[in-house]
């Protein structure tokens, strides 16, 4: 993956982190649609051309093999034509027969070599393309995993901070009215746990 693509992904992460939460929500944020679409548009434009080229080569694997088969068939046809000509024109029929068989065997070997090389090349290109794509997806997976972990950590910090504020308010109310002790004073963190469950839901 190119360094520019990594930079664009980091820009997207920083932009999302800088967005404000929606009123009365701890999970939904307000984003500038045009700014986010511009970052995503640039990310798509920077997709490595190598991926498209490898996909095209893989899709043309059958065409590569078909071309090799055509060349091999052409060689065999030429050899058979020469064989027939040698047999018909030679005064020494046996010698012509031997020469034509040697030529045909050599041609068959060359044709098989062309087919083998084409198959090996196509398989090698396919494996290279798959490896390159897997490496790119692995990098994306790491970046996305890191983003998810960071977002989760920030959310937990926010909940812990809210719990601390809640405890202080609860304590202050108990200190102001030590005799009354309404039911809400004794809930403590249980009320916050309900809040956390509702937020996660």
Describe this structure in words.
With 201 residues, the chain is mostly helical. It has two domains: 1-47; 48-200. Helix content is 82%, strand content 0%. It has six helices and no strands. The protein has helices spanning 3-18, 33-45, 49-59, 61-89, 93-176, 189-200. α1 (3-18) runs antiparallel to α2, α3 (49-59) packs across α5 (93-176) and α4 (61-89) packs antiparallel against α5 (93-176). The longest helix has 84 residues, at 93-176. Residues 185-201 have low confidence and may be disordered. It comes from Hominisplanchenecus murintestinalis. This is ATPase.
Fraction in helix: over 70%
Structural category is mainly alpha
Radius of gyration: 36 Å
- pLDDT averaged over residues: 77
Number of strand elements: 0
Count of domains: 2
Silhouette: rod-shaped
Order of helices and strands: HHHHHH
Percentage of residues in DSSP E strands: under 5%
Amino- and carboxy-terminal Cα gap = 36 Å
- Please outline the major beta sheet: none
Q: Helical segment tally?
A: 6
The low-pLDDT segments are 185-201
Protein name: ATPase
Write the layout of secondary structure elements.
Blueprint (H helix, E strand, L loop, with lengths): L2 H16 L14 H13 L3 H11 L1 H29 L3 H84 L12 H12 L1
Helix pairs in contact: 1-2, 3-5, 4-5
Short description:
It comes from Hominisplanchenecus murintestinalis. This protein has about 200 residues and is mostly helical. The chain contains six helices and no strands.
